[in-house]
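Write out the 3D structure for:
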Amino acid sequence: MSTHDPAVPEHAGAPDPKRWLALGVIAVAQLMIVLDASIVNIALPSAQKDLGISDADRQWVVTAYTLAFGGLLLLGGRIADFVGRKRIFVVGLIGFAVASALGGIASTAGLLYAARGLQGLFAALLAPAALSLISVTFTETKERATAFGVFGAISGGGAAIGLIVGGVLTEYASWRWCLLVNVPIALVAAAAALRVVRESKAEGDTKYDIPGAILVTLGLVSLVYGFTEAAKEKNPGKSTEVLGWTDSSTLAFLGAAVVLLVAFVWWERRTKHPLLPLRVALDRNRGGSYLVFLFIGAGLFAMFLFLTFYFQGTLGYSPLRSGFAFLPFSIGIIVGAGVISQLLPRFGPRPIMIPGLLSASVGMLLLTQITADTSYWTHVLPPLVLMSVGMAAVFIPASSTALVGVGSHDAGVASALLNTSQQVGGSLGTALLNTLFAGAVTSFVADNMRGGANQDAVLADAALHGYHVAFFWGAMLLLLALLTAIVLINAKKDDIPAEGAAAVA
């Protein structure tokens, strides 16, 4: 995720004798970043109840992190390259520990959102520094492939560990420990990094695109805030009406988002040191890959959010049981990725991605059939398996097509854009689908809470109706990813970079 070509370390001298210890430290840091998304999902119902967070606002616990992470990731990569990767890696770990501690002791929803945003900011420094450190620490091809394999396995399997750990901590301690657990891990990793990780920097031009980073981050925050405004009640506690998409405050935030994001593109075309070189994103295959990851992130993040509330709120699962209920999804991706990586050189990306996206879309649509009485084994497990196998068939090929034809100077940016696309997609999708969920619930209650209606029964049915709406539109987002792959991805198997999947693992 640097501007330096990962395949050509600047200091390609004698191998670092502490390189495998360094890999262990980097792996721990990467695991912590991956854990933090899934571990908080399991804890969210408890945190929402404890801090009195509304349904419309609860998505900020997720989006504050993913927005800061995705919006600042490219800038974080540049900072790590120019200031020093080891230094920024250590700063990121310490900052992440502090932000996690603030979130763990947060007494209000606002403080929790702020802490999550701060976590995202330091993750945006930490993640690209970690990947770049592997590139420059391992100079021999076979060793680098092994190191990237470890890194990729953690990226794929970490979410599963997070679901289980989140369940254990929430059930037997408190949701707060899902954040506080990061503190000792990050501090120990930082201390170890000072001893075993070798410093490296990129040479040459060291200019930062601060205006670009500000414009894109403010634009994305405004877009998410506009989505959230649409779901807010007009008169909290007195009315079941929501502000909606045509309210002046909703339109103001959405309009500001359009202006800021257009200004970002205009600036990137003019500046000599762009945060996002448009030549990287405007290539047909690379741009298609980023859009696919954007739509996938939007659909998948929401699936995790709403299934968590369905498990705990509707089915009455404990947090730990909820974590185990998601396990087949993670296992399916890990197993599927191993198979797909063998098929990709034989068939190329397109024949694998299209069936994968179709499978994932069908899986998401099947979730619209869940009720309070349906069985996990018949109505949740099959869709999870379809989605996990489908996602494995997308992640590996799309990671490779994101690097098709990219120059060595842009290799790091092209890799970082994949993660950025997924995080930004997750932010926007979570906010949008949570808004659609909240609006559907409010409308259902308004239509059915009449006369002698049983209030608890109506509220339970309203939540299910909201889940159905969210899953339907989640499936539409995955179908958009499918349409994007059909129209834009045309790379052949011979076009795929040999180390494409590893470089962005």
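The chain has 18 helices and no strands.
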